[in-house]
Write a structure and sequence with these properties.
The protein is mainly β. The protein contains no helices and 15 strands. It has strands spanning 11-17, 20-25, 33-39, 42-44, 50-56, 59-66, 81-88, 96-101, 114-122, 138-145, 150-157, 160-165, 169-174, 184-190, 194-204.
Length: 209
């Protein structure tokens, strides 16, 4: 874990089944949102980073849904890796990389239709500061159904990035971007195409003020 020093959002835990706990942010975040922006369906070509021109900020919430299987690939396999970069400077000197690795179902941990996926937040390139603390990526497992869409809720608050995955898992890191222009957001589908079914973004008033 990232250790006790990170200020994370309050979390609400619920029992989803006898062997699974759900986790979601607890609290009235809707009251902190302003400047809503919405994107509808968009196809992400494989292996190409797409910068979202109009969505940027260093205190924001992003809610995104990515289809489980892409209609375009024909074989029904979703991209094995979906990435979102936040706090990204235009030339990518600084960025924080969120990556979701879809399970292939071979380990059959729960059943044939579910597999262990991984969510990772990599802060290696979050700051160009020479004294920035470099840590290995924060990684957490999440059980996903084979045909389940990926639902990400990402909270960016200047020096923290926190990601909730399908109401089932979360990961958080501290980040210290140095540049004023490290406010961009980009998406990337690795290996295969992905279908972004929707993305909503809000600017956020600081939760800690």
């Amino acid at each position: 874990g990232a250790g006790g020093q990170i200020m994370t959002l309050p979390r609400r835990l619920t029992l989803l089944s006898h062997k699974e706990v759900g986790v979601e942010p607890a609290g009235a975040f809707e009251s902190l949102r302003y400047g809503h922006q919405h994107m509808s369906t968009m196809t992400l070509a494989p292996n190409k980073e797409v910068v979202l021109e109009h969505i940027k900020g260093n205190a924001m919430e992003i809610s995104a849904e990515i289809a489980a299987a892409s209609e375009m690939t024909g074989n029904g396999l979703a991209s094995p890796v979906f990435e979102m970069n936040v706090l990204r400077s235009p030339q990518k000197q600084e960025y924080t990389r969120i990556a979701f690795y879809r399970g292939r179902g071979r380990n059959g941990t729960f059943s044939r239709n579910r597999a262990q996926a991984l969510i990772t937040i990599d802060s290696t390139y979050s700051s160009t500061h020479p004294d920035a603390l470099l840590r290995a990526p924060e990684t957490a497992p999440v059980m996903m159904g084979k045909d389940e869409p990926l639902k990400l809720r990402v909270f960016v608050d200047r020096s923290s990035v926190e990601v909730f995955v399908n109401g089932r898992q979360c990961a958080a890191v501290r980040v210290y971007p140095r540049r004023e222009d490290s406010v961009g957001v980009s998406l990337r589908s690795q290996g295969r195409a992905s279908m972004l079914t929707r993305l909503d973004a809000w600017q956020m008033k600081s939760i800690y003020e």
